[in-house]
Write the structure tokens for this entry.
Amino acid sequence: MNSDIATFPAHSSTHDREQNNQRGVSGHGTFQELPHNFDAEQGLLGLLLIDNSNLERINDLVRPHHFSHPSHQNIYATIEKMIERGLEAKHTTLKDYFEKDEGLESVGGTQYLAELANEVPLLNNINDYAQTIYDRYLRREIIRMNQDINTEAFNFSIDKDAQAIIEQAESGLFKLSESGTAQGGFQTLKESVLTAIEIAEKAFHADGHVTGITTGLNDLDHKLGGLHNSDLLILAARPSMGKTSLAVNIAYNAAKAYANSGGTQGGRVGFFSLEMSADQLATRILADEANISGDDIRKGNIKESDFRKFVEASQKLSQVPLYIDDTPALSIGAVRTRARRLKRQHGLDLLVIDYLQLLQGSGSRQSEGNRVLEISEITRGLKAIAKELNIPVIALSQLSRAVEQREDKRPMLSDLRESGSIEQDSDVVMFIYRREYYLSREEPEKKAGEDDGKFNDRYAQWQQDLGDCANVADVIVAKQRHGPIGTVNLHFESSVTRFSDLEKRYD
């Protein structure tokens, strides 16, 4: 019989769960034993009993539950524990632990341990055994996952539609593909130094010393060095400060740089817009590119000549690799799944989420009903996406109302809403502050008993201050794990929701 797959005849009786955990149901309704390789499992265990040092070569890949036979799972787990405790794991020393093991009786009792050590197959490469065992484990899990999907598809639930089942399946398959990769581990200082030199050389030759993805804003690029792979960047502000506008500007600038440079600069961008629709974001980008007020576009207050600008702008936009997903109330799992899919299908170099508080957690028992724990779960998930896909992730965030209650309304790290994990998990935290927004709402009024001269002086000073900060936005870099903090001054043109370098307003 093939040791990889053994088949069983169809059964009409009901099987208990323990019997069926090694069996699947074929498309014809017959029971079929799940893929396994008994010889490989025996060979690996035998090589471990002969030489315990073999465990170091394979225990990053093989775990006890990867074995198909419960007794093999127990033997492997016991060998691991004994070696970890500095004990010698031989068939003689294992015997005491399995004297009363009923499961081992099915394969020959404690005598089976001696057979494993004495009858090792000819193949002596333990890594080959490990890869075979893991491959069969993956195949079994895929079959089980398929059965679970079938069950979900047949069980109609108001809480889970077909799209949610698809996302669950994609997420499960990706986790499965990542679960046994033995990547990482230690590397020598020599290897790390060579990598550091390569990064430094890239920075030396980079235009404007931007080693990451450009934001399209020179001063911000200079402060951050661009947007770096595996970083989670938080962009936070109170409402009406322009955080969505800045995020859209950065996303569009990066995608446009990629299109204009033939892929040597910028990057392909995915934008999750949980608050605004895709057409609203497109209107903002169109207003920016055509230099026409977005409000005029929405109200139809445009001239016939403006349509020529629209045509030219739309031609440019059609070449820009910016992908927008405006599905509301996404879970962090769905974001991860869709981001992976986008990278696989079109490529992905930068991910933007607008905004963090509109995401949902995984629905775990711990986070359910506790928003702080849920936000912590979301930020950890976003950081994991950045590392898994090796891309920068920008997540927009709200700030608490405590900002409005202070005389100085410049945001601080303590203003991050709902969870300290936002600050903890992020590599960069940036705030947007526009003094003009607050000052314009503080127009002086004449006080009782105040003479006209003093009032006029106060009013003139207010007008001067308002003029000094008109169209100026401060981007406060409050945290940067690998660089300096500080403030970057930008020009903000509200009519076209455009952030640009400050000096451009003097062009």
Q: What stands out?
A: The two ends are 81 Å apart (CA to CA). Confidence is low (pLDDT under 50) at residues 5-21, 25-29. The first helix runs from residue 17 to 20.
